């Protein structure tokens, strides 16, 4: 297996930190000297992923920050070794965030100050800085009703029930560090108290100082000289070093000596290094773990790795390939849209687009849920997809004519010319719909995202993100949304999305998702095809790597489970 990262020219060391001599020893699970090298295509730009939620920052935070739980396969999984979240009142809707006994890697306990700081940021209390979330009518009326310093807990009263109540508050950065940077207070407990006072008293001047630190104080740049206290961790690993060299950024993670959570690290060091031009070829030599998209070019090499007992895990990247229709022009009538979508050859598009990798694409009948999620089966069964769009038409020409669409009607189909999947899927679509009398015209683009927003197309083969929140659903499918995928307006759908945002029961939420999906099905504006695959390649010398589905923290969330095979 790979034991060292690729040697490069001497780079600029951005961040360095070490444990004090009196620091606690490493968790007993850590095997000294073990080392895993990971090919990483992201970049660490801030140690405050809440202020800068880039994919790289979120991925590192998954390994270096504890939390009340994580969303896995579409469901919230609590971590009571960090703390417990509970509803203490239904009216008014009040939630208690109660820490267990986690500590930062410098030995300072997490407490109510850390939670109050995080709440102030997400509730829009940190002023008008552009890097902090803006307050709106809903979040601005949240109230910090209880701050229990002895019990290490806070209680938040929401203006109405909130679907994200379990994850609305966490602790992304240490309050005692923020207090030191904002107010020049070196004593950790006094710094925490200063943060608490600023939040409770709504001191505008003090909150502005905190806001500046929150937004920029944890940034990682080429000119950064960040002390060890900014590298503090509450998760299983901590950032030890960040280097920038000619090939890119390297991030080194080491076990957090103070972490005693549900799963403690086993590997003594994890290096996140640039993936390079051919990460597949580097696995087993320079890399132990890498994530790649399946392509025709890497098929043979990956098959060879499988035959040599390398791990090859297939997950999805949080996107679903979908045929979208613009409800205008030739598709102004719902009957025309339905007739067209019933001729869409989903299986042929998947096979032609995926080629030798077609088996890696998991077919789906939902645009709002992923096939792995607990909600998917309910949504697929109750949305009406099978009856309305799922069965191929036995008389497609008759359906087209009944919808008032003349034979040979032009359908401008937008797709990404640079995507082998999209190009192959378009070819299969063009041939199939021609038999029903539709004329699918090649309107491929080199910038499909921009082209979708500009309209001018009738149909699009698009890679659509699977919404994770009601706000994202509203952005994609809501009436009047600037980011609407199809511009189709539906007051019932808007009302259902708003109701979902206020739903706290997971089973009720699934039923509402099914109803939301049903409005999209009835409108006949989208035909989901398959989720987009991601491959995780693992050297035989590394065990315990289990990549999650989705776009959020696709690699490092389970790093504490990794081990080196003796």
Automatic annotation (TrEMBL):
Pfam families: SBP_bac_5. Keywords: Signal. It comes from the Bacteria. The keyword Protein biosynthesis does not apply. SUPFAM superfamilies: Periplasmic binding protein-like II (SSF53850). Residues 88-366 form the Solute-binding protein family domain. Residues 1-23 form the signal peptide. The keyword Signal applies. This is ABC transporter substrate-binding protein. It comes from Microbacterium arthrosphaerae.
